[in-house]
Structure formats: C-alpha cells, structure tokens
From TrEMBL:
<dbReference type="Pfam" id="PF15055">
    <property type="entry name" value="DMAC1_Dmo2"/>
</dbReference>
<dbReference type="GO" id="GO:0005743">
    <property type="term" value="C:mitochondrial inner membrane"/>
</dbReference>
<dbReference type="InterPro" id="IPR028036">
    <property type="entry name" value="DMAC1-like_dom"/>
</dbReference>
<dbReference type="GO" id="GO:0034551">
    <property type="term" value="P:mitochondrial respiratory chain complex III assembly"/>
</dbReference>
<keyword id="KW-0999">Mitochondrion inner membrane</keyword>
<feature type="transmembrane region" description="Helical">
    <location>
        <begin position="98"/>
        <end position="117"/>
    </location>
</feature>
<keyword id="KW-0472">Membrane</keyword>
<feature type="domain" description="Distal membrane-arm assembly complex protein 1-like">
    <location>
        <begin position="78"/>
        <end position="107"/>
    </location>
</feature>
<comment type="similarity">
    <text>Belongs to the UQCC3 family.</text>
</comment>
<keyword id="KW-1133">Transmembrane helix</keyword>
<comment type="function">
    <text>Required for the assembly of the ubiquinol-cytochrome c reductase complex (mitochondrial respiratory chain complex III or cytochrome b-c1 complex), mediating cytochrome b recruitment and probably stabilization within the complex. Thereby, plays an important role in ATP production by mitochondria. Cardiolipin-binding protein, it may also control the cardiolipin composition of mitochondria membranes and their morphology.</text>
</comment>
<protein>
    <recommendedName>
        <fullName>Ubiquinol-cytochrome-c reductase complex assembly factor 3</fullName>
    </recommendedName>
</protein>
<dbReference type="GO" id="GO:0006754">
    <property type="term" value="P:ATP biosynthetic process"/>
</dbReference>
<feature type="transmembrane region" description="Helical">
    <location>
        <begin position="7"/>
        <end position="27"/>
    </location>
</feature>
<dbReference type="Pfam" id="PF15141">
    <property type="entry name" value="UQCC3"/>
</dbReference>
<keyword id="KW-0496">Mitochondrion</keyword>
<keyword id="KW-0066">ATP synthesis</keyword>
Length: 127
C-alpha cells in the first residue's frame, strides 16, 4: 500500500510539473515579441537612463565614502535608518529599496524596544 501511495505521489508531482512547464511554453512570448519588449525597456528612454546613472553615481559615492573611512559605520546609532536617509538627503530618488530599508529600521527599533522592556526568559507569569 505504501509503494502505491509513493507512486501516485510521484506521478502527481511529475504531472503538476509537466502542466506548469507546458503552460510556461504556451504563454511565453515569441521571438518577435521579445525583440519588441527589449526595444521598449525603460532604459531605452534617455531621461530614465540619466536618472539611473545619477542614482548609481550617488550609490557609488556612498560606497566610496564608506570604504575610505576607518570608522565602523555599522556601529553607529541608527545606521540602518541613516543609510537610507542619506541617499534621500543627497537628492537620490526614493526607491522601493529605500522605503523597505526605512520600514526595516522601524521594525528593528520596535523589536529592540520589546527586548529592552521584556527580555526573553525574564518575565514570569503571575498565577
């Protein structure tokens, strides 16, 4: 009975994988459509390309400053937040990564407050 169950599970898995591959092949764009998509990428627009270059230049500037300093920048208070805030102060465009970094910093700060207020194993139930 166990071998029958194993065979059915294996065939079910292979069948699901086969259906997924078949749908991927059926719905993928043809070669002509791929070329059209490549022509219309945002990087083909000169204005967006200049924005990308400026953003990359700002990121490289931050990395260069971090490499040249002898200080451990990760040790500073609020490093996660200040790194994202520094990019915005320099005029960098607010990307989803920057927003995610600020949200992560807020979650990290909240978690730190919880740990400081009630460290693991220190609270006791009052019965």
């Amino acid at each position: 009975m166990s071998s029958m169950r194993t065979m059915l599970a294996t065939w079910g898995l292979l069948g699901t994988a086969g259906i997924g591959y078949g749908m991927w092949v059926a719905f993928s764009p043809g070669e002509g459509r791929k070329q059209e998509i490549l022509k219309n990428l945002p990087e083909a627009n000169p204005v967006r390309m200049e924005e990308s270059r400026k953003r990359n230049m700002l990121i490289m500037q931050v990395l260069k400053e971090a490499a040249e300093t002898k200080d451990n920048i990760a040790r500073g208070i609020g490093y996660v937040f200040h790194a994202a805030r520094g990019v915005m102060r320099r005029g960098g465009q607010t990307s989803m990564g920057t927003v995610a970094q600020i949200a992560f910093a807020a979650c990290l700060a909240a978690w730190g407050c919880v740990v400081l207020a009630d460290p693991v194993g220190k609270s006791h139930r009052k019965e």
